[in-house]
Amino acid sequence: MNPFIDFSFQRILYQAVAAVVIIATHGFFLALAARLLGDKGPEHDGRLSLNPFSHLDPLGGLTLVFTQFGWVKPLAIERESLAGRAAGPLLVALIALAGSLALGWLLWQIRPLAYSVLTGGAVGVTVVGLLEMTARVSLSFVLLNLIPILPLTAGHLLIGIAPKAAEALNRFRLLIGAAIAALILLGLSSGLGVTMLGISSAFYG
After folding, report:
1. CA 138, 144, 148, 152: dihedral to nearest 10 degrees?
2. CB atoms within 10 A of CB 113
3. Would you say residue 1 lies in a domain?
4. Does 2 map to a domain?
5. How many CB atoms lie within 10 A of CB 172?
């Protein structure tokens, strides 16, 4: 049985909440990293925000809700404004991915505290379930976004080393996203979900 394929109402609701949190925070981490490294553009573009709609890629968001893998809208980065120049966009991506991974780990760690504070019961179980789901989806999200192709986060490195290729890929973002979504679904049906569960168990303990 694939643990990533479950279209029950509760599972989809939990994954939707997780998706909102991840999209909002990861998009913010991307913009914050770019700003800290010297690029003011994301701030002017409204990306330095925790509003999930500022970072939403519709296809990436839907894929995240239904498969626990997804992506956010790529960030417009001016590499000449960044510390590190050509390496700057990669640093932005790595900082954002590290932030999302750390957030997932933190949410996992506070589950017992949340359950204790809420004294168990239905509310406590629900909150712990949401924390656990968001942590697990965060890990899946980060692992997928390590692949260096736009619209995935690590694809921002292309802005540094091959800006014309990055611009071309961004124009075909919808088509590339559809191909990634299809590959994810095929991977899930062939055992990727079970593999991810093992990685998640190893990471969170």
Report:
1. -70
2. 11
3. no
4. no
5. 13
Asked if omega into 151 is within 30° of 0 (cis), the reply is: yes
Q: Reply yes or no on whether the pLDDT at 6 is more than 70.
A: no
Instruction: Please give the distance of CA 58 from its chain centroid, rounded to a whole number.
Output: 13
The identity of residue 173, as a single letter, is R
Note whether residue 75 is domain-resident.
yes
Nearest to 57 by CA among 159, 200, 155, 161: 155
Q: Are 49 and 31 in contact (CB under 8 A)?
A: yes
Q: How many domains does the chain have?
A: 1
3 domain residue, yes or no: no
pLDDT at residue 27 is higher than 70 = yes
pLDDT at 4 over 60: no
User: Which pLDDT value is given to residue 53?
Assistant: 96
User: Could you list the residue range(s) of the whole structural domain that residue 72 is in?
Assistant: 9-204
| Helix and strand counts by DSSP (H, E) for the chain | 10, 0
| Tens-digit pLDDT profile for residues 91-114 | 999 999 999 999 999 999 999 898
Residue 30 in this model has a pLDDT that exceeds 80: yes
